[in-house]
Amino acid sequence: MNAPRPATQILSRRRFLATTACGLGGAALSACGGGGEGASPGGPPAIQGLAAEPVAVGDAARLTATFSGGSGRIEPNIGAVQSGVPVSTPALAQARRYTLVVEAAGQPAVRQMLDVVPHYRNRYVPLATPLPLQYHAAVTAADGSVIVIGGSRGLPTLSDAVDRFDPATRQFTQVATLVTGRSGHTAHRLPDGRILVLGGQVSLSSAVQAELIDPVRGTVTPAGRLVQTRNRHAGVTLADGRVLVVGGLWRATVELWDPATLSFRLVAAPMRHSREFPSATLLADGRVLIVGGDHVDDVDVPAEVFDPRTERFEPVGGPADLPLRYFHDAHVLPNGQVLIVGGERRDGLASRTPLAGVLRFDPATQALSPAGALDRPRSLVRSLLRPDGSVLMFGGEGLDEPATASAAVFRDGTAQPLAAMPAGRAWHTVNALPDGRVLILGGDAGNGGAAGGGLVYE
Hints:
Elements: H1 7-15, E1 46-52, E2 60-68, E3 71-75, E4 79-81, E5 87-91, E6 96-103, E7 110-116, E8 124-127, E9 137-140, E10 146-149, E11 161-166, E12 171-177, E13 182-183, E14 186-189, E15 195-198, E16 201-202, E17 209-214, E18 219-225, E19 234-237, E20 243-246, E21 254-258, E22 263-266, E23 279-282, E24 288-291, E25 303-307, E26 312-315, E27 329-332, E28 338-341, E29 344-347, E30 351-354, E31 357-362, E32 367-373, E33 382-385, E34 391-394, E35 407-411, E36 414-418, E37 429-432, E38 438-441, E39 454-457
Antiparallel strand pairs: 1-2, 2-5, 3-4, 3-6, 6-7, 8-39, 9-10, 10-11, 11-12, 13-16, 14-15, 15-17, 17-18, 19-20, 20-21, 21-22, 23-24, 24-25, 25-26, 27-28, 28-31, 29-30, 31-32, 33-34, 34-35, 35-36, 37-38, 38-39
């Protein structure tokens, strides 16, 4: 039996022919331009059609315009076209709207728009990675390459390597070296393109030392010392270029890193309790939503908001029975709301349960609410947000699955399965590439060893 096509592919094929009303009279596609196929070359500008062949993410689309009565061009980035002659677009990472304009001297121009929505082939292309890779950090650089930092790479000590993955060649090249090997650290891209690396476990004794990577120059420089050691923490770059460091093992505190002074400062106000593996998400108004985080305190506060202007924490509303989660992901949607997917909750000291529930945070009401469910419970979920508001999810831990190979797309409250990865992964990283494809690197296999190689989902 053939497996059902994923929802992304089905929806894409429905959408790529969708058009808006066009022309001066706002007629439907079949009547756009008013002239139809019978229009004479000497008549007024008329459009008979604008169509696209199905196209995959990362590929160029072929557009064909049919028109008469004038000269035609397609915007943006294409220019003059001839009627009936196909033209190619640039490679498409996401949906793109194209407009056909037909005009003649002394005549009103006519226009027709076409939304071209590329679909995923729903397959994985294996990559040759130099070494096994676990507990690393991966940051998308300003030029679209991916900077892979530290981790465990099958050597006796933690890795100090900083590598660059080139999406064009699909090759890894070492560009810099950290002062000390690290694992479980976080890395945060700054507005100027540099990357701040902090926390985690280190090979040397400088556990509080932060480092600043310049991926263009290939340099690593000291970036100050944390006030407190941080492991299992979260961090986020603020709108003003500072970095907020949140929680960690036994930590109810947050710190602010200032790029002007290369120094950390402990914020006086603490969170409601310690938070281990929380998420920290920058909101449109400059505040930070902090969700979840494991702890052993007597009180459970599922989320709170930190305001960098006042350096105080604000309460977040929501259902009274909302479980506190960790090992989840959080994404800011195009409408400014935040989607929280997956994770797990603690059930006593030795038991934990992966979660399938999805939450939505609304900054207008400052409250969490249920927002649907995943295809299955997923802890340690690794996901990325697409421009259309959908979320792609790969691997993680499930019920009785230390590393699942499954993948899914979540959209509008429901999840649909995608093709499974060749093998299960947990603790891996996912990064969007400039052409819309997805880089999947490293992580744990089902037996706890390193997952083999990297993957590109396309």
